[in-house]
Design brief:
The protein is α/β, with parallel strands linked by helices. The chain has 2 domains: about 240 residues, 3-Layer(aba) Sandwich (Aminopeptidase); about 100 residues, Sporulation related repeat (Alpha-Beta Plaits), CATH 3.30.70.1070. It is about 35% helix and about 20% strand. The protein has 11 helices and 11 strands. Strands 2-1-3-6-4-5 form a 6-stranded mixed beta sheet, with helices on both faces. It binds zinc ion.
Length: about 350
């Protein structure tokens, strides 16, 4: 296998959606269950990774038709120190025409269009609704009520240090699945999916196709179709692993600002070799989002953030000063209001996380 040894991507967690008393979405004729399709594709992906990369450990959140709560799925990934989390699902709407695949990463919805937003809120509710199947959900999910749109605002405050890597893998998947039997891409979305919020590594949720669309369903029902979908996701994994491993060897992926113009390893070299310039400042990154927000947004609690575009993300930085020690003092206050924030050095448009 093309493996880089001990450093780099060593463990991947594959999460087949639903299972047991939660079948997920079910075809009109009741013959096909999302839980079974997701498990089959996941097992194929597991085999491909295990064969192609014998030194990579593959952890499945379930390998039989059992019910696993969403928080338990994330816990399995976290406990195994997975470097990547891939959740596999099938989509469904009441209308039979929508088709294609979509990839979801954690975030507040980045789509302002009302219809798109309503559509996606439905997907989101469906994937989160499994929470309702658990008796103690109100305690376990800290007041999060999946049937109440207002409670989604709760997630707007959530941070995810791994968003950048998640988006990169989402792009790899979007590209690879374009060769597949279900070719239509519905894009990459930022959504408040519970399972993605609880995982502490790059994480994506893939809706491989629509159960409600005749053509997509026909593909999902064939072994050949499911195998090709697994193969496409495996191809995306190969691309991601290669880039991840080379950026780990040059620095850690989270510490490297990835820009579209330059591949990660080159950027990392540039960061490492750059002499200390007077233009360099320090600050506290409080948010990375695909959304271009106003500096008056209530999210920033009165702070006026510095905004830097990095790849497909905007990064928002407050408590900016010319020395690390001044920013560290500011950070003492800021961290109380912004959970998950961290100190960064900003040099032009290159942002480097400081431990
Ligand atoms: Zn699902």
């Amino acid at each position: 296998g093309a493996d880089n040894g001990r450093r780099g991507l060593r463990t991947v967690c594959i999460d087949p959606g639903h299972g047991g008393n939660d079948p997920g979405c079910v075809s009109r004729d009741k013959k096909t269950h999302e839980s079974k399709i997701a498990l089959d594709i996941s097992k194929r992906l597991n085999r491909m990774i295990t064969e192609g990369y014998p030194s990579v450990k593959v952890v499945m959140t379930r390998s039989t038709d059992v019910f696993i709560p969403l928080d338990k799925r994330a816990e399995i990934a976290n406990k195994n120190d997975a470097n990547l989390f891939i959740s596999i699902h099938v989509n469904m709407v009441s209308n039979t025409s929508p088709n294609g695949y979509s990839i979801h990463v954690l975030g507040q919805s980045s789509h302002k269009d009302r219809d798109l937003f309503a559509y996606n809120m439905n997907v989101c509710r469906r994937e989160n609704s499994v929470i309702m199947l658990e008796d103690d959900y109100s305690e376990k999910y800290q007041g999060f009520d999946p049937s109440d749109p207002e409670s989604f605002i709760f997630f707007n405050l959530m941070q995810n240090a791994h968003l950048e890597q998640s988006l990169l893998f989402a792009q790899d998947v979007e590209h690879a699945m374009n060769a597949g039997p279900i070719k239509k891409s519905r894009g990459i979305w930022q959504d408040p999916f519970f399972v993605l919020w609880k995982t502490s590594m790059p994480a994506v949720l893939i809706e491989v196709g629509f159960m409600s669309n005749a053509a997509d369903l026909a593909v999902l029902r064939t072994e050949e179709g499911r195998n090709k979908i697994a193969e496409d996701i495996y191809n995306a994994f190969k691309v991601f692993k290669k880039r991840y491993d080379s950026s780990v060897n040059a620095g850690t992926p989270e510490e490297v600002a990835v820009t579209k113009a330059e591949p990660a390893p080159k950027t990392a070299e540039k960061v490492a070799q750059a002499p200390v310039k007077t233009g360099k400042v320090y600050g506290v990154q409080v948010l990375a989002s695909a959304k271009d927000m106003k500096d008056t947004d209530p999210f920033f609690k009165g702070y006026k953030p510095m905004k830097i575009k990095s790849g497909s993300l905007y990064k928002y930085i407050i408590g900016v000063s010319d020395t690390k020690s001044k920013t560290e003092v500011e950070y003492g206050k800021i961290r109380k209001s912004f959970a998950g924030s961290f100190i960064v050095a900003v040099d032009g448009d290159v942002i480097t996380r400081i431990k």
